[in-house]
Design goal:
Chain A is mainly beta. Chain A has 1 helix and 5 strands; from the N terminus they run ββββαβ. In chain A, strand 1 and strand 2 form a beta hairpin. With 87 residues, chain B is mainly β. Chain B has one domain: EutN/Ccml (OB fold (Dihydrolipoamide Acetyltransferase, E2P)). Chain B has 1 helix and 5 strands. Classes of the chains: A mainly beta (89), B mainly beta (87).
Chain lengths: 89, 87
């Protein structure tokens, strides 16, 4: 799983039925200084209600997504599974 | 899952079973700023995208799950046409 910053949202009208009604966010991984680094990608926000600027925990593994969303055939690969309050090191 | 722009089409008459009738498009992966992130790739289209369209894709095993039948040799699929990206 990755710590990522939420950059914003993606809206799409024409989409695969599996994405209907789901919130799609643009996120970017954070480096060790908690600064956005690396390639941004898209993740589904299922229940965390994350918004732009939030630091979130993103899972990037399809089987985990299908387990969380309780659907064995979902073509979804990345999911926001937590909104991070603090990272202590 | 990631953003991309459709930059071409692929014609491929002989293909593996299960891929009959599927449309293959060449897609340039993009980041949130619209800048290239990696080399172009070929993706199966599930949303009737056309060249020039901003789309989003899913890769790996999940790409095949976007298709019917799902047990097909595919590792990239276009699953949405982007209306807007608000960052």
């Amino acid at each position: 799983m990755n710590l990522c910053k939420v950059l914003g949202t993606v809206t799409a009208t024409a989409k695969h039925p599996a994405f209907a009604g789901r919130k799609l966010m643009v996120v970017q991984p954070l480096d060790d200084a908690m600064k956005p680094a690396g390639r941004s990608f898209l993740a589904i926000d299922h229940s965390s209600d994350a918004g732009a600027g939030d630091v979130v925990l993103v899972m990037r593994e399809g089987n985990g997504v299908r387990q969380v969303l309780k659907d064995k055939s979902l073509p979804i690969r990345s999911l926001i599974v937590g909104v991070v309050d603090a990272v202590e090191r | 899952m990631y953003l991309g722009k459709v930059i071409g089409t692929v014609v491929c008459e002989r293909k593996y079973e299960g891929l009959e009738g599927k449309r293959f498009l060449v897609v340039q992966p993009l980041d949130h700023k619209g800048e290239k992130s990696g080399p172009p790739e070929v993706a199966v289209d599930t949303v009737s995208a056309s060249p020039g369209t901003l789309v989003y894709l899913v890769s790996s095993r999940e790409a095949a799950l976007a298709l019917d039948p799902t047990f097909v040799p595919v590792d990239s699929a276009i699953v949405g046409i982007v209306d807007s990206v608000d960052t």
